[in-house]
Fold this protein.
Amino acid sequence: MLLKKGNRPLAVLIITLGLFLPAVAHADITLLNVSYDPTRELYQDFNVAFAKYWQAKTGEKVTIQQSHGGSSKQARAVIDGLEADVVTLALAYDIDAIHEKANLIPKNWQTRLPHNSSPYTSTIVFLVRKGNPKAIKDWDDLVKPNVSVITPNPKTSGGARWNYLAAWGYALKRYGGDEGRARDFVARLYKNVPVLDSGARGSTTTFVQRAIGDVLIAWENEAFLALGELGKDKLEIVVPSVSILAEPPVSIVDKVVDKRGTRGVAQAYLEYLYSPGGQEIAAKHYYRPRLASVAAKHGKQFPKVKLFTIDEVFGGWQRAQKTHFADRGAFDQIYQPSR
Amino acid sequence: MAVSLKRRHVLPGFGLAMGFTLLYLSLIVLIPLSGAFLKTATLSWAQFWSTVTEPRVLASYRLTFATSLIGALINAVFGLLAAWVLVRYHFPGKRIVDALVDLPFALPTAVAGITLTTVFAGNGWIGQHLEPLGIKVAFTPLGVVIALTFIGLPFVVRTVQPVLQDLDVEIEEAATSLGANRWQTFTRVILPGVLPALLTGFTLAFARALGEYGSVVFISGNMPMRTEITTLLIITKLEQYDYAGATAIAVVMLVSSFVLLLFVNLLQWLGNKRYA
């Protein structure tokens, strides 16, 4: 084989396209944005806006292709050779993995863009049935014995890990930093979970379509989306007193952009996310904007919550993953049969 | 199978055909599977053993093998019945029923899983009638059995059907004229004839169920220790970038499936010898 391993799928694609579309124009730039599930609508809008902006600025036409799926599944695809120019994933741990396993990105990737390379944020809120029949106000209500809680499996879902850490962080605050009591709190919460779906969308379906559970723990943007789809006469959003600041990070994939010669436009693509225009689109899709002016404009939409970051409470994703979600970690111990 | 290679074959092209078969099997089956073994080999023996004998993994083997076996057994009984009806009777809409049998083959497994969950959930068409009776299907091992029965059905029907078709009605008539009652005709005449095919269909359905992922994750609820199937645990390992751990569990599944398939083939061979 003359081609390097990573090139082969692309080469096959090009040859196939070449066979069928001999007259395709080569001047256009294409970017591949590999993202996670709930950002589909956000990036559809954003890509159109960016293409317009880029053409006005440079005269070049840029087409952005999107790929969506579970966050770590997407990271694995990039590690295994999917030629993403940029990755926009659910958690920093997945982009760290692209550095660690395939070295396509330098170790300090998260310091290259403002705000930990997260142009928008979200948080974890509760979705309850209309009228809030179980009177769920805060995390404490989720561990009551007669409450049924829906959340996905943290071992398979990035969103579920944010949910879990939000509950743990709340308990730590409540019990003055007592790890043992926090562990007990989270264990009690998961005792109330009847179904652990493999992804966040699966949990939303379980809660909304199958009418299982009293409360769904969800990303704020997912909760708004469910509310929009199903109408406000069925569901309500409840914002807890304390929650986690979810920072979905973005990065260019250095090895890919250098090979394809797309570094400039890929960089501009990510920077445009931080611009007023990009921030406005993020806010429209229920992601909390970073830019103060845009945030102020949408202040009503995003209720004030006391937010803690994963770095403050858990010492970053690498450590959180190891203590909580790795095999035989804190999450597994909840389900370990007592011997 | 036990033909000596040295004997001269009546059919030409044995060398070429055999060579092609071996190459084909290597490319499609052996090389990808040996990848799993090679990746697993990066673990030490102790790491391998602790990965594949964790309580959660053990619980998933129990669930996967038990539900696959039950699903395959249900299919063996009802698949045989369906094949019988399709071969021996003529009725309007027979072709449609015949085509329906193949549907589980064609349907994407995720679609099957979501549909079954919708139907059997507490507020679904069937689920709402079962729940008052105290029967919960979705998000229990019973739901897993249903999903695995669904995907395994065509295997039994499609392997038994042609054999039943070849079974001459005259043999049954002869049995009757020699004084056999219906039950004896079935157990002594028909069943021995279709048993090898039934066993093959059962084995295929069972093997397919062991590796199933898409349709089960939706209906099982994925509760650790209770309704997690082994393939889900393989995926959870991958989500943690633990490639070696994932392949370790895959290897255990592969080896145990292979042993089981070998065992069923042996049974079949013994059976053939007896009735031949």
